[in-house]
Design a protein that fits this description.
15 helices, alpha+beta, rod-shaped, five-stranded antiparallel sheet
């Protein structure tokens, strides 16, 4: 049977490392690798150089080739230690360690090559140095906390330790390369094991990179799933509507957008976005959309009107941007329902106008009364200067003017808080109970048949109910019950009834009771109640039957009432 000589084994080892170098290079060019991979890749051709010098040492400078080959061999395993440290600790080996180790190695090998030419001592030092390097390498591999690559690291540490064991056996047995053409079975097994271990160690290092890459992919996929779920939750529960428009067609919308449009998501996807824009706004919206797609600078945020599924116009604020969807530009649009904001702004403006008007009326009235009061004072002084003249009639008239000024100031105090805070959703039941808690009305039975009804009104709604209840206590002498109920009208509005079973209001006074002059002389406050309600376009009138009790009807417009608990972002519908 043919037995390979040492040159054949060395040549096999060299060719094996050349192939491994090519494989690792191709893998590095195509796939993800990590810190330390390049150092291991470079160590392979260095190892080839070391084996090549050993192979040809008998043909040329034997001592020099042997010396350089041994130093390169130590450098190879030092580089692999560096590669492992970079991989597991992300830290390069200190260059000083390279310099010191190679300097000591070169000195020792030079001594045992040129001064004391001893193959046994060279082998012993080689095994000792290699064992030290291997111990540190195995320690790094075993101590790493990366659980995903643990089994591969342990296997790699075991094989590297086995390589060190081979060199220790070689040093103990004292055999060396003598240049003969054949090798005994022990040397043959040694070099076969060396070739297989080199292939296995390099292969495991590549597998180590692959395992880490696979673990990172799994972590990335898990993170992507978590992020997808998180962002889906953000989009799903967003308080603003979110839509994607591509080629003027709705490609996506979240539940809030569907609610603004008045239906389910499936009702609108695939439909042209402009079909939800009123005709008079379509040209402007189309121009803005096309300009943004072409890269022109356009306002990112602007207000417009959309038409929901039922044909009702909805005031909205659009916040727009451009993203890429399936390789094509698409419009990312955030839609904010601003009906409540518009309604609040309108209510605040209305309140401010009323407040300015009332201030002007009160100011003029007080100024007129002060002018009259000044005139009476002049007349009183003249009367006091004239013998026998009486100032009493003038004093009585003066007191009447002072009383009018006091009534005007009391009236002004009653409405001074009008419009200070924006309108909001309020529970009818809660507002009434708070209002009546300020009054001595324990003898009155109360029936509240409004359920969870809420209306969009000025924060002084509680004051309105207090005024109505005071009216019952003051004028409804025989009243025993207050009833609050509601009825929805065919036009989508609602009528809120406030009734009592007292004396009622005469027909000729049904409108007069809401006049400012009536409030100043009778102190019923119904004028203020009407002013508060009109801020949010709620009308009030009295429709009761005289002698059967008073009945006030509050006409609440469509979209300003609901039957559910208040939420932060709810808008009038």
């Amino acid at each position: 049977m043919w037995t390979p000589d040492l040159r054949t084994l060395f040549l096999t080892l060299i060719l094996t490392d050349v192939v491994l170098t090519l494989i690792l290079f191709l893998y590095w060019r195509k796939y993800r690798t990590y810190y330390g991979y390049k150092i291991w890749l470079i160590s392979l051709p260095v190892y080839c150089c070391s084996m090549t010098l050993i192979l040809f040492r008998d043909l040329l400078l034997t001592d020099l080739f042997t010396f350089v080959a041994n130093v390169l061999f130590i450098l190879v395993y030092l580089m692999r230690l560096d590669s492992i440290q970079r991989f597991v600790r992300s830290k390069a080996l200190d260059p000083a360690i390279y310099l010191i180790t190679l300097a000591v190695t070169a000195g020792v090998f030079a001594y045992f090559t040129y001064w004391v030419n001893s193959v046994a001592f060279r082998g012993a030092f080689l095994a000792t140095a290699l064992t030290a390097i291997v111990i540190i390498t195995c320690f790094l591999l075993i101590r790493s906390e990366e659980t995903e690559t643990r089994s591969i690291r342990l296997a790699l540490a075991g094989i590297i330790a086995g390589v060190a064991g081979l060199y220790i056996i070689r040093a103990i047995t004292g055999f060396g390369v003598t240049g003969v053409e054949t090798a005994d079975e022990f040397i043959l097994v040694y070099y076969y094991a060396l070739i297989l271990s080199d292939i296995t160690v390099t292969g495991l290092f590549v597998v180590l990179n692959m395992a880490r890459h696979q673990a990172e992919l799994e972590q990335s996929e898990q993170l992507a799933r978590e992020n997808e779920e998180k962002y889906r939750s953000v989009v799903t529960w967003a308080k603003d509507g979110i839509v994607l428009v591509q080629d003027h067609v709705l490609k996506f919308m979240n539940p809030k957008a569907a609610a603004i449009f008045g239906g389910e998501m499936t009702d609108f996807l695939g439909r042209p976005f402009l079909s939800f824009i009123p005709p008079h706004e379509q040209d402007s919206v189309r121009e803005t959309y096309c300009s943004r797609l072409s890269g022109e600078r356009t306002p990112d945020v602007y207000e417009t009107v959309i038409v929901d599924r039922s044909g009702t116009p909805v005031d909205v604020e659009l916040n727009t941007g451009i993203i890429e969807l399936d390789g094509k530009p698409a419009g990312l649009i955030f839609i904010r329902d601003i009906r409540e904001r518009r309604r609040s702004q309108k209510a605040l403006e209305q309140a401010q106008k009323k407040l300015a008007l009332l201030n002007d009326i009160t100011f003029n009235e007080i100024r007129r009364d002060m002018f009259t009061l000044t005139g009476y004072q002049i007349l009183i002084r003249k009367a006091l200067d004239e013998p026998g003249a009486s100032a009493r009639p003038l004093l009585e008239k003066e007191n009447a003017v002072v009383q009018k000024i006091n009534e005007a100031l009391t009236f002004a105090q009653a409405y001074q808080d009008l419009g200070l805070r924006p309108a909001r959703w309020q529970s009818v039941r809660h507002a009434f109970l708070l209002a009546i808690s300020h009054l001595d009305a324990l003898h009155l039975n109360r029936t509240i048949a409004t359920g969870d009804l809420e209306i969009f009104a000025d924060p002084l709604l509680e004051r309105v109910f207090q005024i109505l209840a005071e009216n019952v206590l003051v004028h409804g002498k025989t009243a025993t019950t207050i009833t609050i109920s509601q009825r929805e009208e065919p036009d989508g509005s609602l009528i809120l009834f406030f009734e009592d079973d007292g004396a009622g209001i005469p027909g000729e006074m049904k409108e007069e009771i809401f006049q400012p002059a009536f409030q100043k002389t009778r102190s019923t406050g119904l004028f203020l109640a009407r002013e508060i309600l009109e801020i949010t376009e709620i009308a009030i009138r009295e429709t009761g039957v005289p002698t059967r009790g008073a009945r006030f009807e509050l006409h609440v417009p469509k979209g300003t009432f609901r039957y559910r608990a208040p939420q932060i972002d709810d808008k009038p519908t």
